[in-house]
Amino acid sequence: MSLKGKTAVITGSNSGIGLGVAHELARAGADVVINSFTDREEDHALAASIAKEHGVTVRYIQADMSKPDQCRALIEQAGACDILVNNAGIQHVAPIDEFPLEKWDAIIAINLSSAFHTTAVALPMMRKAGWGRVINIASAHGLTASPFKSAYIAAKHGVVGLSKTTALETAREPITCNAICPGYVLTPLVEAQIPDTAKKYDMSEEEVTQKVILERQPSKEFATVEQIGGTAVFLCSDAAAQITGTTISVDGGWTAL
Ligand code: NAD
User: 210-257, pLDDT tens digit by residue?
Assistant: First the structure.
């Protein structure tokens, strides 16, 4: 399938899943806008390298997804947005009674509210173009809970709800909205949790990966960023034109438990 002529905007995409999704959409022929809150030479170099690898146009636009006006400006600056992938996300782990207020606010802003702001600006563009795909990267934690991740789980359940509402508001148009719910994917966000968790449980990093991190993932394997990207490409295909307002789990069986 070809996404030639389509423009995809992926929030939080200079690393991890967002970067994997950017590669797969570019491989399918879409022009891509990648984003993060930084403005480093390497961010622009990354855009150039994706463009070179896949022969499409790739731009890096700096915008901080914790700031409503910058979320909206990202889509406006992109100029076109046929495919919107709301991916930016952060994590913080602490019991509710010790959860820092600023972490709660940042997680809700980046992981949930940013998707509302970008979608609000992107939908009129999609309507004008006569086609659109909104793909929200939620999580297995958008469908289930774990202790100590209150803000993340509240935000990801919120993303699933926002996806359903977006789908209903666009149901009579050639626009779909769905949430991809990954289980554990080995990205910087997860890698950062391994050493501390290993210390906490007095285990080796390999042991902690298998016994703690992948405990709820029956396949005992991480999902890959390419698999998440491939799922996003599928959601852009004609085969997925009637798939809207739902979740697609890529979680090695987590939510079957
Ligand atoms: P990551 O840390 O590799 O990537 C997060 C991305 O978000 C980075 O590009 C970062 O620069 C960007 N970002 C962070 N704060 C931002 C801000 N204020 N403004 C703009 N960009 C910002 O993590 P990841 O694992 O690739 O996570 C990507 C998404 O996938 C997140 O929404 C995460 O919750 C979700 N997810 C990850 C996993 C997993 O196991 N890795 C599982 C389920 C869901």
Answer: 999 999 999 999 999 999 999 999 999 999 999 999 999 999 999 999
Residue 99, amino acid: F
Q: What is the 3-state secondary structure (H, E, C) of 231-257?
A: HHHHHCCHHHCCCCCCEEEECCCHHHC
What gap in Å lies between CA 12 and CA 87, rounded to an integer?
6
Residue 152: in which H helix or E strand, if any? Answer: helix 150-169
For atom 22 of ligand 1, which residue has the closest CA? 12
Tokens of 48: 């150039």
147, 185, 212, 215 from 19: Cα distances, Å? 28, 13, 26, 26
Ligand 1 atom nearest residue 156's Cα: 34
Annotated catalytic, 152? yes
Tokens 């394997």, located at residue: 221
**7-185+223-256 maps to CATH 3.40.50.720:** yes
Q: What's the 172 CA to ligand 1 centre distance in angstroms?
A: 31
Q: If 0-12 CB within 10 Å is exposed, 13-18 middle and 19+ buried, where does residue 225 land?
A: buried
pLDDT in tens, 138-153: 999 999 999 999 999 9
State whether residue 177 is helix, strand or coil: strand
Name the one residue in this structure whose structure tokens are 């993060």.
36
Active-site residue, from 60, 152, 184, 201:
152
Q: Where are the domains of the chain?
A: 7-185+223-256, 186-221
